[in-house]
């Protein structure tokens, strides 16, 4: 398959695409406020509601008990009156002394009214206008007597009336008399108010006592968090050691473990920054010293030809220094921010084809046969960052061209295997000793063969490749190139699911030699 080298296509491939910043539309989270306040609210407010419901229930029960007690007293008065009812000369009579009338008509808290009715409903004694028994009033089941209790209004006041059916008889007749005793509700209301006030007072004291206990309990429970806060606040700025999880309760220990994990990551980040600063200062010191020396030589030189040679040397040293600085910045960017960027589908074969186009001219100038073998784009799609993947392939291909002697070959191959997409970059250069396979990924490490064939290298190319592979979850493998000479670097990426039924094998090859 032919590959186009048109500049417009190359520029279109190189043009960066803006990515959506993660979390740009996310609204800031509202502050949670005080933990102590939330605990107290969640404990005290439901407690107050429950106590209020309990107070209502207690008040109703107390009123029912008071009604039963007053009704029993009312029934006793009715029975006492019924004992004075008899039949005399064929008529129902009530023998109620004057003193008894006084006791029935009034008491210390309210008034009491009574009425005794004969066999035919006629008033025998008492208040003849006392309200009659409603027809639908049921008989009370609480007492072994034919008694009915009901509420009514008498003389503009609410009253509670007990109506007792009392059998009366003599030798000439027998029948049922009705004895009614009514009582105003003043005494009941006074008792109800007293019960209500006592209930509310006791419930209020209970809520106050429980709230005090809860406040002290919450304060006691939160003390370990306060100690943890004090430990963290009083630490030295450089102290990133783990916090003792025994300082807090078991439920809070995952938070402390997460804090310790964050501190460990900060330690790694700081160590990486220190290492980068040390490496950068060490590596940049030599070319800057050379530049200074060359500039001083140029100032002392009077021969134009010699000065021109020195200037060319300064330009070459500057290019080398810029290349080193770019590599250092790339390495720092990957180490400190590459893992946080969003991944998107990227056709690895497209990236390899683009790198081949960019490096075709240096390969031709060196007399190297640069070839590409790639399956179709759908089969070689991986989740990644296009710019970082371009940097990875470019570093591998550039290294291969630099360390391959003139007349050699460099092959870029992208293929799909079971579950992985594999990028192979192999050359016909001097290769590496297997004992150095693990060392070459260390920053600034240079193998002996690399020092001989390319003394001006930086030793950062494979370190950058390793970090980019780590960001993408890929694995690296080194081996001898096919034929036993040279080096083959393989990068295995997790493959995406194929969008079509079968994997294509549209293989292409271009030659830049």
TrEMBL record:
Tell whether Hydrolase is among the UniProt keywords: no
Q: Tell me where it mainly resides.
A: membrane
Q: Where in the cell is it found?
A: Membrane
Span of domain Histidine kinase: 279-497
Signal sequence residues: none
Matches recorded under InterPro entries: 2CSK_N, HAMP_dom, HATPase_C_sf, HATPase_dom, His_kinase_dom, HisK_dim/P_dom, HisK_dim/P_sf, Sig_transdc_His_kin-like_C
Q: What is its EC number?
A: 2.7.13.3
Annotated catalysed reactions: ATP + protein L-histidine = ADP + protein N-phospho-L-histidine
Looking up SUPFAM superfamilies in the UniProt record yields: ATPase domain of HSP90 chaperone/DNA topoisomerase II/histidine kinase, Homodimeric domain of signal transducing histidine kinase
Provide the protein name: histidine kinase
Q: Which organism is it from?
A: Telluria antibiotica
The organism's lineage?
Answer: Bacteria, Pseudomonadati, Pseudomonadota, Betaproteobacteria, Burkholderiales
